[in-house]
Amino acid sequence: MPVSDNFLWGVAISSHQNEGAAPAGDWAEADRAERFPHACGEGARFRDHFEQDLDLLAHDLGANTLRLSIEWARLEPEPGRWDEAEVAYLHRVFGAAKARGLKLVVTLHHFTNPAWIHRLGFPSSWEGGRTVEAFARYARYVAEEFGAQIDYYLTFNEPSNLLVGGYFAAKIPPFRWGPIALFNAARGVAEAHRRAYEAIHEVRPGAMVSISEYTGMLALATARWDYTPGRALALLFDKDRHGKPLHLDFIGLHYYGDVPLHEMGHYPLRHHLFGVSPEGFEAQLKAAWAAWKLPILIGENGIATYNHEPRHDRWTAARYMAAHVRAMEAAMADGVPILGYLWWTLTDNYEWGTYHSRFGLYRVECQAGDYARQATPAVEVYRRIIAAHGVPEGL
Fold this sequence. Notes:
The longest helix is centred in the middle third of the chain and has 25 residues, at 179-203. This protein is 37% helix and 19% strand. The protein is built from 12 helices and 13 strands. The radius of gyration is 20 Å and the shape is globular. The chain has a single domain (8-388), classed as TIM Barrel (Alpha-Beta Barrel). The model has no long low-confidence stretch (mean pLDDT 93). The chain is α/β, with parallel strands linked by helices.
């Protein structure tokens, strides 16, 4: 089922993973403390290669949309000080994307924080009100400075994983543990989203603003359970009398597949062991529409290998992509309104503690210091899907 000409076809990337660790960021501090098997370093060197990467996206793939994130710690390395060089860099990137006809989906927070939010007094980090105020100020600044170039805003990327990993399981910064920390931080993130939403809309009344949340299935042997952690966070959102969220203009949804239950405690995640379930993707899209009654942007969908070695289940990125776009088309045929489909990700990059998980359409040997972009077989498949506005016959 071909989609409309204004459908968003593209990819998603993030600043930390593609540009490297911000010196003033909390993940850079964690790297210096050797908290992860692999330090981030320079990521995939997007800062040096963004012109080439935008050409690959717009001209090689024929896509029309880029989702990327702003690194808060680079833009505001100290409270209240906006870095002029970073402002100029972001204008160059955004301007280059627009010159290629790309729409921009901009994420304000993709797991990483300025280290200074953890030193704002007690309680600090997302447990404290000062961080909420700082985030609202940051969101307003982004809307004022860059809003003319931004088409969609995502305040938080996978807030449930940020909260569970950072405030319950102590796997990522700030490495907090316990249900009280989790509850207080969840309340803080929900309030920060609300304040950011209002700030953006005050500056740009017609803005499209949301969060982007992870969905999937937990798997144990042949048993599978719906895994949509964002539903718990949704309890904190304000709603109208019909139950519709007041501070979401659409729904950002991520889907990868079945997460083996025993993998939940492993960090870094071994993404190549996740199961594949296109039918689960279709079910999650229908469930999200039934629950929220808001249009859906598929903010991430992808499959990983371990250093490009064949997967044990023999799924390839090319086959996975075609199967999941078909599942998306089936959901749309049943009335689910979908704004776009963004593949995770354009190039191999840093996957939150490891370089072994490879999701890229273009292979990059970051650890070896070889930043050449090499097309994988999935590039031709995505090119054909985009050109046909859906999965063509015979693919």
